[in-house]
């Protein structure tokens, strides 16, 4: 009897698997659009508490759809273990969400060593960010715009930056992004400058933009500095569980100047990991210095300044959160943060391929194993050109500005260090 039920269940799953996948894709598209719009409204505009409550209810209510969808697709999968293995990240996040719901709503648990209010605020922010990522991924899976437009890489690159600038402009114009509102042209100029990492502004970003506005500028800087297309293709290949399709593999190959399509995704993944690793190292060094320097009111301020300036420096963007730029007292005579900023600027400036050839584990192993193997020609050209410009530029700047802009520095070392920082 049990065997017959098992056969019927397998037949039901086999007959309805495609239909269920199609239904879930359609519902995901609709709910993802609703979640994205709700998150933009919630964080971009001012509403009364009653309206905010319903928007939050809508956002967190959609959680149950994602949970139900996951288990339904697992149920309608012919190989459930393979489905779970291919979506481990979603599995763990959903388990954590369910456990949190049980601990808070069903069996309230008090954790003495955690500030509950702060934890809940950061937790809810993390949930919203996760929802946004899910929504974007679901929208990506439910659309085929790229295939229909048939963009080749240069055109897609141009389209991506234009889309990023337009989206950034609209986001920066939302009421919660600024203290007193800005004009369309100022918003577009700031979004363009951040996306194209020029560092030019028509406004004081610290006194004009709120914390949320500064987050948007930082995201635009990161996406623009690494190329929005790099992120787009990277997450597209993550979405497709079997790996990048043929068209995406060729897109990555052209984007990364890789010789073989089969290596392109791995290369792209390494670019993302290397970038984030260097930026995280910069954030930690800046944070621990500023945390103990007494320059900031709270550790939260020090941490945000560390993140913002690490991202800005690595992407060579030139944005700072001080109106006086790095002439601020937290920087002008503080050599540790100046050294960290120089390291980040230099690392981002010489590029991923040079960093990989210099410090990549595989490259180091090959040079140890085969002593005749040297640095690549491209790496040598980049290093010689970069350090020639830095050394010659610093020397000339030091000589020319010795009795001018460097006159406020007392010693030979501080003058030389200031010249080096300025040239880098």
Q: Can you describe what's shown?
A:
- The N and C termini lie far apart (77 Å).
- This protein is an all-alpha fold.
- Helices cover 75% and strands 0% of the residues.
- The longest helix has 43 residues, at 2-44.
In terms of topology, how is this protein built?
Blueprint: H1 2-44, H2 49-75, H3 80-86, H4 88-106, H5 116-142, H6 145-149, H7 153-172, H8 184-195, H9 205-208, H10 211-226, H11 228-239, H12 246-256, H13 264-291, H14 299-314, H15 335-350, H16 352-359, H17 361-369, H18 377-401, H19 412-423
General shape:
globular
Number of helices: 19
Distance between the termini: 77 Å
- The sequence of SSEs as H and E is HHHHHHHHHHHHHHHHHHH
Number of strands: 0
Unreliable runs, pLDDT <50, ≥5 residues?
111-116, 238-244, 258-262
Mean pLDDT: 77
Helix content: over 70%
The main pleated sheet reads as: none
Question: What is the CA-atom radius of gyration, in angstroms?
Answer: 25 Å
- The percent range for strand residues is under 5%
Structural class: mainly alpha
């Amino acid at each position: 009897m049990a065997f017959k039920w098992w056969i019927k269940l397998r037949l039901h799953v086999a007959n309805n698997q495609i239909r269920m996948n199609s239904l879930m894709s359609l519902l995901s598209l609709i709910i993802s659009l609703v979640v994205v719009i709700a998150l933009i409204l919630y964080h971009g505009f001012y509403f009364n508490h009653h309206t905010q409550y319903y928007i939050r209810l809508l956002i967190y209510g959609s959680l149950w759809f994602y949970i139900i969808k996951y288990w339904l697709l697992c149920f309608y999968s012919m190989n459930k273990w393979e489905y779970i293995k291919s979506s481990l990240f979603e599995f763990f996040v959903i388990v954590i969400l369910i456990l949190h719901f049980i601990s808070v709503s069903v069996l309230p648990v008090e954790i003495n060593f955690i500030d509950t209010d702060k934890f809940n605020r950061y937790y809810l922010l993390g949930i919203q960010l996760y929802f946004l990522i899910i929504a974007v991924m679901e929208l990506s899976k439910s659309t085929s715009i790229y295939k229909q437009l048939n963009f080749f890489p240069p055109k897609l690159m141009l389209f991506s930056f234009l889309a990023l600038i337009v989206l950034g402009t609209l986001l920066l114009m939302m009421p919660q992004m600024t203290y007193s509102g800005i004009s369309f042209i100022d918003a577009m100029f700031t979004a363009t400058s951040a996306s194209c990492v020029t560092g030019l502004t028509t406004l004081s970003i610290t006194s004009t933009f709120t914390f949320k506005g500064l987050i948007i500028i930082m995201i635009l800087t990161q996406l623009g500095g690494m190329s929005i297309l790099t992120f787009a293709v990277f997450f597209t290949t993550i979405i497709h569980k079997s790996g990048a399709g043929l068209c995406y593999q060729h897109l990555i190959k052209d984007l990364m100047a890789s010789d073989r399509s089969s290596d392109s995704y791995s290369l792209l993944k390494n670019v993302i990991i290397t970038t984030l690793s260097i930026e995280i190292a910069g954030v930690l060094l800046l944070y621990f210095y500023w945390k103990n320097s007494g320059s900031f009111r709270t550790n939260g301020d020090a941490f945000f300044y560390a993140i913002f300036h690490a991202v800005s420096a690595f992407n060579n963007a030139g944005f700072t959160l001080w109106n006086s730029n790095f002439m601020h007292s937290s920087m002008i005579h503080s050599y540790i943060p100046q050294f960290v900023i120089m390291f980040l600027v230099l690392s981002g400036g010489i590029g991923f391929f040079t960093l990989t050839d210099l410090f990549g584990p595989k490259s180091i192993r090959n040079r140890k194993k085969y002593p005749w193997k040297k640095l690549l020609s491209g790496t040598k050209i980049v290093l010689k050109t970069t350090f020639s410009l830095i050394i010659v530029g610093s020397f000339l700047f030091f000589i020319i500005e010795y009795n001018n802009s460097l006159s406020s520095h007392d010693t030979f070392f501080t003058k030389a260090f200031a010249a080096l920082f300025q040239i880098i």
